[in-house]
Amino acid sequence: MSKDSDGGSVRQRKGKAQPKDVAADRPEAETGTPTAIGTPRNGSSTPTMVTQATMVTQATLEKQLVIRQPVKRVKRRRWFVAGIAIGVVTAVATILYVNPTQNTHINRMQEVLGDFDVSTLLPDSLLPDDFVQDISRLLAPDKTTPGPANRSTGEFEPALTLVEEEGLAKKHNVILVPGIISSGLESWSTSSCSRPYFRQRLWGTSTMFKAILLDKECWVQHMMLDKKTGLDPPEIKLRAAQGLDAADYFITGYWIWGKAIENLAALGYDSNDMALASYDWRLSYHDLERRDQYFSRLQSQIEMALRASNRKSVLVTHSMGSQVVQYFMKWVESAQGGNGGAQWVDRHIEAIVNLAGSPLGVPKTLASLLSGEQRETVQPLASYLLDHFMNRKELARIFRSWTGLPSLLPKGGNAIWGDLNGAPDDPISNNTGVNTLADPGGNDTASPPAAVSYGGQIRFDDERSSSMNNQTMEDSLQLLFNALDKDELRLMQRDYSFGVFRTQQEMDARRDDHRVWTNPLQHQLPNAPNLTIYCLYGHGATTERAYYYTADTASMDDLHDETGTPALRIDRTHRAHVSNVDIGIVNGEGDGTVPLLSLGYMCADAWRKPLFNPHGVRIVTREFLHNPLAVFKDIRGGAEAADHINILGNRDVTADMLRIVAGKGHLVQDRFTSNIREYARRINIP
To answer: How far apart are CA 451 and CA 227, in angstroms?
Structure first.
């Protein structure tokens, strides 16, 4: 575009040269009115001498400039927008394909698009109207009126129905304790890299996604902990966001605690009697108190609530939050911690409601730390970005710096998770009631394919790894310890213990050892006979239980290559001879994240035994079969979804939680719908 002496400009058609006299600038071209042929640029009325042919040529070209060019640009714009729309739909379909269990959890797309009609942006000839309108309906929110008739959750249901039909009202103070990665983390650093993100969330909200995509190095610096201290690196300060909005939504439209908070509000709760105890989940529990005084603050909050209302508190936990509260109950009564004494829990806590709790850990945590393959150890939306923009070396460095992550490593060793001869939760034939297993060596050719045992936590069956033996859970943990550097191993051994105590003498000897407070198989429930622990969890979703691995090295003694990338990795070879293996992952029962053994064994069995529950704490177990709607009906699964995250929106689970906080916990009784009690009978722990 060139300017004349009066500052005007004229558009030129791209890709086609213009005659020299036509290329002259004309101010009126911007408004679509061509300058009169032969009129000087200074605006005088003296005509220039041009031939008739030139005048015709100019007129024709200017007609093209003024009329035809805008039409072409409109078409280009429409095709450009159409491309964006098609790209969005393709991205949604792609994510749905790679993660069918979780249904991608991209509810944000519904909120963002709302009533947005994609068909208005597309050229009429691009797609049939019916198809485009179907896509619009898929991406738009469900307009179904909430209420008991359609068993919806959200829009203050089922609370409004329970208030009317059962007379529920608020009673006990409520403290919500989120799981790993649920709490938003915001930057308080003022270094040059940090300044653009001051008081913005680098975990949670769209800022996180922007930082990963556009400023990855700075984001990694903030998210990693110092490998020497387990705390903040120099000049970096990341802290848990505070308040109810710290974990109500991960990003706009993607609820975590949002539906639970809505329902509690319908019972009469507000910020005076309901709180969310967010925390920096990257830290070990020991360091949560050392850096943030997290447990001291939680103790004070519960004590203040009792003084203000003369009512005890109900702690509602999710996932890793159940372990945080287990640790807190031991910490608060210990002279090495809160020094509240043996009766503190009984005086201050009415009930603990564990939603999808993981007291015995999660096998996928082992894969995250061992080979940097997170497979949604982190929140699904975040995991998609991490998978596509970071390699295994980067992920392993980040995960191993998070001293809180090992709290989710499997506990109980072979006694819980089995050995090479079999596992307590090995598949049971519906017809015979006995295990139906493939040949452990991988040579089974039966039809239909049988299942492989879960007792081999890590298996090797490729030629490259022919010298390596299959590993039990205890072997696999030792494999991880060998792969860690000395600082990573030192911090893990400082903070955690993964075994089993079988006698009272063992319990007494390590009563004040904070390492066993993270392991329910190595400590006892508090002296709180008036306390009730509710375990509410889902099952029936495909869940990672064990793995096939391959090695990039010939020796177990060399678990990293020269670049620092873990030398062990999941072997994604297809194995048609076994029915429960998919791209190297041995799938079992659970809620899509936590295996059934971890979800249910303590609640269904161990906490009902004197060794682990000597004071008679009431234990209630409620199981919910994962029964999601089709994705096109509800992308989060609907009111009967019971997978690990969406259970926070499950209607029946929410109803049970509301009854408990309203003082009607006696209505919530045991309900078993899985094989967990059969599996528990196979575990030899007194």
So the answer is: 40
